[in-house]
Amino acid sequence: MNIDEVTDELYGLAPSDFVGRRNRLATAAKGDGNRDLARQIAALRRPTQVGWAINQWVRTDPDGVAALLDLAAELLAAQRRSSADRLRALAAQRQELVADCVESVRRTADANGVGLSDNAIRDVGQTLRAAVADDEIADVLRRGRLVTAAEYSGFGPAGVFLVPEPAGDDQAEGEPDAEPEDSSASSTGIVDSERLDRARAALADAEAAERDAEGTVRKRDGDVVDARQRADELTEDLERLRAELEQRDAEVRFARRQVETAEEQRRGAADDLDDARRRVDRARTALTRLERQN
């Protein structure tokens, strides 16, 4: 068992099954002595309805997903070539394709017994458009591991923003400009040893602070994971207790109706007893009268 296998399994489940299965897998990993894997599993977040719906679509309609991501690649290529005509054509194609994919997501959710609201459908469309524009979102979508709806807020193919090619080949793409040389160092070729010692000491202090901060972050990560797991467990307990309370409330109402029925039947039986006693009294009186006559 590794984190990829666990993640694929969990994000293929219904949200209602997510927390219970996640906690069981985390407990199993911890029991096997793999505490790092247990923490990774426990940190996985339950998907929203929109995230779940898109994840199910990814698993059931790979052709639709491939078409959407292929279009993203074409938009990026046209953007890099600064091809305005091609970008306009692809933008129109994107609008139609996203609409088709949204409808496919809706049908997939319906097939799984979940109807998406108008707001949820809008969030689905927003997420698919974000995946076209953002490689990171596209990668999460491709894997079917969305947690919630995504939104693209930068520039790129989604906004048909043109980025020209670099002006020349002398500098590699993405390579930063060289920093200007320190004038004093270039003129003398000598770095003051005292300044160098101070710089080394400052670096050592900064690295020590970095290590301390990393340790604190790891501890806080563990605290967050533990707190989230506890909150999820309490939420499940609360939902279970609410369901039990509703069941007990229904049982109480039924028992009260039974009490009312029993009391009504007892009143009827008491009336029958009174009638029977009166008949006994009359019979005794009649018998006594006959005995006296004889």
TrEMBL record:
Claim: Coiled coil is one of the keywords in the record: yes
UniProt feature coiled coil, ranges: 196-293
Keywords, alphabetical: Coiled coil
Composition-biased stretches (Acidic residues): 167-182
Domain of life per record: Bacteria
Region (Disordered): 161-196
Protein name: Transposase
Species of origin: Gordonia sesuvii
